[in-house]
Amino acid sequence: MDVVPLLANLLAEDTIGQNLEQFLLVLSVSLSVATLSRVLPWFRQTPYTLLLVIVGLGLALVDVRLVNLSPELILLIFLPPLLFEAGWNLNWSYLRKDLVPICLYAVVGVMISVVGIGLGLAHFAGIPVAIALLIGASLSATDPVSVVALFRELGVGKRLTVLMEGESLFNDGVAVVAFALLSGLALGTQDEFVVPVAIAQFFTFIGVGVGVGSLIGFGISYLTQRFDLPLVEQSLTLVAAYGTYSIAEALGGSGVISVVTVGLVLGNFGSRIGMNPRTRLIVSEFWDFIAFFVNSIIFLLIGDQVRFASLGENWLPIAVAIAALLLTRAVGIYGLGLVSNTLAKSDISWRDQTVLWWGGLRGSVSIALALSIPESLPEREVVIATVFGVMLFTLLVQGLTTQPLLKGLNMLDDQAFRKTYREAIARRMALTRVLGYLSKLGDRQELDPEFCQYQAVLVEGQLSTLKEEIHTLQTKHPEFKELALEELREDLLAIEADTYADLIRSGRLNEKLSPLLQDVLVEGDRLDKT
After folding, report:
1. Which residues contact 529 (CB under 8 A, 6 or more apart)?
2. Are 489 and 521 in contact (CB under 8 A)?
3. Cα distance between residue 39 and residue 454, in whole Å
4. Among 26, 286, 382, 437, which one is most buried in terms of CB atoms within 10 A?
5. Helix/strand/coil for 332
6. How much is the pLDDT for 326?
7. Any idea of the CA torsion for 384, 386, 388, 393, to the nearest 10 degrees?
8. Radius of gyration of the chain (CA)
9. Residues of the chain whose pLDDT is less than 70?
């Protein structure tokens, strides 16, 4: 009997068991923190992702390491679903309106951050320029998960959320590409940085990523028109998220950009032409769960990976990097905001720009890039410590002070009324359906007609109160009427797309018709304004 294979199998089974125990431990701690953040009143004021980081820091302080957070774990397992979920939920119509400032922030803003942070570290912390630029590339990717969650909790305007999420989605890809281009310079495998070559490589990375994401996204969109199988369509989106990333990376493109692209295509196009409303809801809820699940794990592990001794030893580059990051972020946001407002008439207010500046947190992508540096690089620990230190500052200081900043800028007063208005509209819709149901119960002999009439009178009384409340809110805030009209337009376009998809599935239509209402509604708006 050969003992060696037997021992190898036993060791492999033991390793699997240990990994499973570690995973269950991480999951238990993460879900406990997420639950407490909803139960205890004080914790409700803090995004649960930040609470996870704080708990992770506590575990790191007592040297309890849950699991080794490798860059492959972040880039290959955690990052694709987070990017896809963000792209799926990002409304293209809102994104298109602010595409100019988002692209400026995501491309030019990243360049400003890389150069500014790199030069600051080289001049004030004495770090070699190549290494300093690599740190700058690592820290140029924003990760506003916590801030966006806070926005949604507080009812902050959709435009600000789209600006922050859109910038983050695209600058993740740009930052990864910049990091890849600068890695050769830092590792000594590339003698000099040739600008024309770097620009060509940059557009190649981006082009391949967009091409792969678009091809897969539109392919799945047209495929799902032919059948109505919610579980299969849900599974296809999961395969698209991971498959697109792997294929784009294998072809020499940006996996991050490809996943963002396929998420945008499927969320804004495929879900309209290839999925009925029920399937869209199922898939959206599935990705909400995936995002919650992954965020619950990754933010806890980020805090758990901190090495406090290393942070103390590298306090100078951390301090310089924080100052440089805030300065370059201010230059990028306010300077590029001015350019966008002037050239594209974006009309981004100084208050919105201030929130964008302060809300530019750093997170998983920065950590993954720093950890991916080979151990052969002598300055690897300095890079990792600096990135971790800056990330903790943005998450704990900027993240926890975003809500007071919003209050200080008087940006929550109108949002509170907006939230009340949406809730009143939702209650009116629900009670109207209840009233319609009660009107159909008259033929049921087992029910007392007087009882049904009494219930209907109670519901009508509540409806009357809600209508008065809605009218009062619309009188005080005329812009709410425009909000209702915008939502109506989206519903009309969705109904048109669903009708075409149903006709294709039933065989009564061979190919999707181009949207008719889109141009009609745009022309109607133009005539109204004239």
Report:
1. none
2. yes
3. 37
4. 382
5. helix
6. 96
7. 180
8. 26
9. 1-20, 22-23, 37-45, 64-65, 67, 69, 153-155, 189-195, 413-416, 441-448, 479-483, 487, 505-515, 517-530
What is the reported pLDDT for 7?
45
- The model's pLDDT over 157-214, given as tens digits with 9 standing for 90+, comes to 788 889 998 898 888 888 888 888 888 777 776 656 666 777 888 888 889 999 999 9
Quote the distance between the C-alpha of residue 144 and its chain's center.
7
Show Cβ contacts of residue 463 under 8 Å, excluding neighbours closer than 6 positions. 428, 431, 432, 435
pLDDT of 109 reads: 94
Place of tokens 């959320």: 161
Give me the pLDDT at residue 183, please.
84
Q: What is the pLDDT of residue 10?
A: 44
Residue 234 structure tokens: 């849900």
C-alpha 488 chain-centroid distance: 25
Q: Concatenated DSSP letters for 230-287?
A: HHHHHHHHHHHHHHHHHHHHHTTS-HHHHHHHHHHHIIIIIHHHS--HHHHHHHHHHH
Number of residues written out for the chain = 530
Look at the block and give the residue holding tokens 């920065």. 366
**Rounded Cα gap, residues 328 and 357, in angstroms:** 10
Please give the structure tokens belonging to residue 164: 């922050």
Structure tokens at 106: 């995501």
Which of 283, 304, 365 minimizes the C-alpha distance to 79?
A: 365
Among left, alpha and beta (phi > 0; psi -120 to 50; other), residue 231 is: alpha
Structure tokens at 21: 């125990």
